[in-house]
Amino acid sequence: MKVLYIDTETTGRNPVKNDVIQISGFIEIDGIIKESFDLKCQPFSYENIEMEALAVNGQTVETLKTFETPRDTYNKFTKILGTYVNKFDRNDKFYVAGYNVRFDLDFLKSFFEKNNDVYFGSWFNWKCIDPLPILHFLEYQGKIKLDNYKLSTVCEYYKIELDAHDAANDILATREVIKYLAKL
To answer: What class, spelled out in words, does domain 2-130 have in CATH?
Structure first.
């Protein structure tokens, strides 16, 4: 089983208009973490940055300008993926894991397209591992009740350490939430 745990930080909420500025995660194969990564990149457009998004992830426009280009980040990311998956083998794909991971997948797909790569789906089997729907189901069953379902709130509820809004920290905490829920 090949799992790509992934989290992104972005310049807003719209994957077409806004850009990825951090891709963090790790690759787990058969329960063993093989590699972790924390890639920071400049946005494709400085014109579409939402200042509220930068406030959430603690970045400034000046700091973003010190990050690698999107193309260099894309090359590093696909090299990491290619170490563990043969994108030309339809049976060799990653499961993608993350908290509200569809958000991250939408941004990553757009990131690939902006790098002139339409083969994003060649790496992933599209079966996602996401604790958020499980948490919603637990609420439906009356087993939990939270004020909200932000990762920080969930981590506090389950007593999982989190320094929120940094992709590297968020994905490690997400793995712990997934492991905890798997035991239920």
So the answer is: alpha beta
